[in-house]
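sorry for the late reply, my laptop died twice this morning and i had to redo everyting from scratch. anyway the thing you sent over, i finally got around to it. pasting the sequence first so we're on the same page, its 136 residues, then the predicted structure underneath. double check i copied it right bc i was rushing
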Amino acid sequence: MITFTRAAYDEIVYQGYDGGDEEICGVLAGEYDETESHVADVYPVENAAETPQIRYAMDPEEQLAVIEELEAAGHEVVGFYHSHPSGPTHPSETDADRATWPGYSYAICAFDGYPFLGSWRWTGDEFEGERVVVEE
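ok and here's the structure:
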């Protein structure tokens, strides 16, 4: 299970809308646990992919700087997020090919008439769905 503060959840959705037809991406910050994590904040990272309409890629230096910033703020890395402006509501094959943090959450905000935010844990071999809870 993964819980989001209302503010963190809404921020991902707003970033997704602002990204238009390009995927947005960033780091989930809060309290990490192997079975249940809590997202208190999100840290956007610029999408450096050559084709941001269908892929996302975080610049490694910017990603490291963001991780250092969130740790300095007292948070842990919970996982990562990105959007699928016109893609599926679940991880794509490309998402699985590029996943590198076993045990961490990968949240996807998909837009198909309305926003849907789902989350999956990467096992090292595949994604396993996890329940998303939003704190009011």
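The chain has a mean pLDDT of 95.
thats about all i looked at so far, will dig more tmrw
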